[in-house]
Every structure is written in C-alpha cells, then in structure tokens.
Design brief:
275 residues, mainly beta, Porin, 14-stranded antiparallel sheet, 14 strands
C-alpha cells in the first residue's frame, strides 16, 4: 500500500504497469542488472511537506511459473487463466523522518513498511495486440520494520488500469484510476495524535478507519536498447473525502508525485520465462 500511496515509495514498483507489457515467452527466465531513479512525493497522504528520493539498487528479476520477481513486483502466482490471475504480492516502502515534516515534529518517525497480501487481476478487454484493460483488487497488510515487526492494519486499493505497447514493445504506457481505503489501525499510523504528542497547534486526535484517497496515475517507458530502458511517471492523489481530514496532521486536500528512472539488465538467461 505504501508504495502505491506515494508518501514513501520504491521507484521500481511505480514502473510496474508500463514495463510489464511483453508476453512472458518473449522474456528471459532471469535477468540481473541495476535500477536507478529519482522521485518527489508527499511525505504521507495529506502532508504539507514533500520528500525526494534518489535510489541506485541492484536489480534481480525472475519469471518462474509460480514465483516472480520482475517489473510487476514480487509475487507468488497461485492461479492463472486467460482472464483471471490470483497472486500474493510483496512491496517495501522507504521511511519518513518526523524531523523533516513540520506537522509531525516531536512525534515518532514513520518507519519502512513491508506490505504483503493477495491480489486479484481480471482482464476486462484486449481490443488490439499490445492494448489491455484490467481490474486490480489487492488487499494488503503493511508491517512496520524497525524495533521488531509490528502490523499496521489493512489496506484495500481497487483500480482500473489501461495498458498499451507500440513499436514492438519499444514504447509502453499505462493510465490507472483507483481508490484507497484503510482500516482504523492504518489510519492511526498516519493521522493519530496521542495526548503525549499534543501541542498548542496540534491537538490530540483519534483516527478511525475509512476512505483515504482517490488516485489517478500514468507512466511511460521506452526501451533504448536490449539492456537499457528509461521511464517516467506522474500521479495525482485527491484526499478531499478522506475519513480523517479533521486530523491536525492532515494539511492538504491533494498531492502530486513525479519521478524518472532507468533499468539496465546486462545479464540474462538463455532459458525463456514461463507463461
């Protein structure tokens, strides 16, 4: 959830829809290389402050029949038919330090969150080769990393995705529209102000579960060579109907995220990926 909500992101996950267009049989079973990118995003949903990240990381992709770690994320595919897929996915967020966010000064930092859970993917339409409309319905459980492992609730993020590829897969793009809702524990993680952290300008607040945001996003990528691909993305989040907009930590009704990056995969297997 955190990587999709934009306040603490991993850039690789943000490129997923636009970079996953080729059929598996056209791809190596595994690839190894480097991923790099930069992004600017709200520190958390409704934050007034922004966070910028630059990442350069090793990149390992594996496209097995069940286990997959590729540009679509890390997941274990449990069911796959022509129209329906069901898998269990994983993602990792980056932390947000409270001393960099004025509204949270003196409060605990927002730690990295490891999210995992089931996801249903339904193909709704394939009007032409390289074009596809689908429905994604993930249900994830974020777990806080640091000082032990602590679960931070549940999040549901259904969304519609339209993907296209052209020029033999050289250009790939997607547009997506979705909503995000979280239970009480997750909303408390971001919007709760316990009495010991209350100040004259930040009164105590008890957060409840419910709607968090509406999201509109788009991404575009281009294959420069067999080893190199570049990409960019943009995303608009609207929080005006969020359940916890009365929290003193809630400062804005909308937020933008933008980023650019590259992947280099210089090593790959001769064996082809599973369908």
């Amino acid at each position: 959830m955190v990587r999709r909500c934009g306040w603490a992101i991993t850039m690789l996950a943000l490129t997923a829809p636009a970079l996953a267009q080729q059929r598996a049989t056209d791809l190596p079973l595994w690839e190894v290389g480097v991923f790099g990118g930069a992004a600017a995003t709200p520190a958390y949903p409704g934050a007034e402050d922004r966070s910028s990240r630059v990442l350069v990381l090793p990149l390992v992709m594996y496209r097995g029949k069940v286990l997959r770690a590729d540009r679509s994320g890390v997941n274990a595919r449990l069911l796959a038919t022509e129209r329906v897929e069901f898998d269990v996915g994983f993602a990792l967020s980056l932390p947000a330090r409270s001393d960099h966010v004025a509204a949270r000064a003196g409060m605990p930092d927002l730690k990295s969150l490891l999210e995992f859970g089931p996801r249903l993917n339904v193909t709704l339409a394939e009007p032409a080769p390289g074009s596809r409309g689908r429905l994604e319905v993930p249900l994830r459980a974020p777990v806080e990393l640091g000082n032990g492992l602590r679960r931070q609730g549940l999040v549901l993020e259904p969304r519609l995705v339209w993907e296209t590829a052209s020029d033999g897969g050289k250009w790939q793009s997607d547009v997506n529209l979705g909503v995000v809702a979280g239970d009480a524990r997750l909303n408390q993680y971001f919007y709760e102000v316990a009495p010991q952290y209350a100040t004259a300008v930040r009164p105590a607040y008890h957060a409840g579960g419910g709607f968090m945001m509406t999201r509109l996003g788009a991404s575009l990528s281009r294959r420069v060579s067999p080893d190199w691909r570049v990409f960019g993305f943009g995303r608009y989040d609207n929080y005006s109907h969020a359940a916890n907009r009365d929290s003193p930590l809630f400062r804005r009704n909308s937020g933008w995220s933008v980023g650019v990056g590259f992947t280099w995969t210089g090593y790959r297997s001769a064996a082809r990926a599973w369908e």
